[in-house]
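Internal tracking record. Fields below are filled automatically when a chain is submitted to the structure queue. Please do not edit lines marked as system-generated. If the sequence contains nonstandard residues, flag them in the REMARKS field before resubmitting.
Queue: standard
Priority: normal
Entity type: single polypeptide chain
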Amino acid sequence: MTTSNAQSVNYSYATVPTQFVEANGIKFAYRSYGKTGDIPVIYFNHLTANLDNCDPRIMDAIAAERHIISFDYRGVGATTGEQGTSMPDMAKDAIAFIHALGYKQVDIVAFSMGGFITQELLLVEPILVRKIILAGTGPRGGEGISDVVGLTYKDIFKGLLTFRDPKFYLFFTQNKVGKDAARVFLKRLNERTENRDKKVKLSVLKKQLKAIETWGHGTPVDLSVFKHPVLVANGDNDRMVPTPNSYDLAKRFPNAEPVVIYPNSGHGGIFQYHEEFLKKAISFLTK
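SYSTEM-GENERATED OUTPUT FOLLOWS
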């Protein structure tokens, strides 16, 4: 690792500069800060997410204990290239990105589609990973994963009609508790006021949804060969990656911790319960 890859712990996620590194013919945009160390935490983000879609509460809390890095997938935000059309392609890009930064091993915190990519990464280069947190995600071929296409388009349309971010509907339950949590979360995502990432193109949404649909119909993988420590978390009412997938996923990893399920919450359970999630996640990542 070169010292230029790490930024001072004095930064917050709202102020840390965006950097660039080339790998696989792609110029990757990323943000890197927190405590320096040989093994960083890499954050794998969700469907159509750019750098500004990382929850600053989660990023800053991890940065206080570890060095954390977020990045844009190929063709997303400020990262160049055409959007990858499959989870294995995106996993290979992620591996190249990590190697380009000079790391031989990383911990991963992955949310939603990021969890799909992480599983494909393990199939290619398992020794690159030490510990894994998988939130709001499930195994290849998991129950209801391929249905995310119709659900996403429906809630995007609902968001347009109500002038709301689709995540208001996709990530949170539609009772008072969920709606209040959604407003607070979406406000957090706007805390960065300068040097924000480039908006995600509609073509990215279409290609990523197609990749998720294909992955959701894919043949399940034997994850029992991976002995990595794994922590699985979700809300109890996830509509995007149905909650039973979290239990299924944890059973497939031999060294998984007991599944953490947050009550009265949806796909974004770790954002709604970020304080509780962080206590568990930081303990897991630092022990």
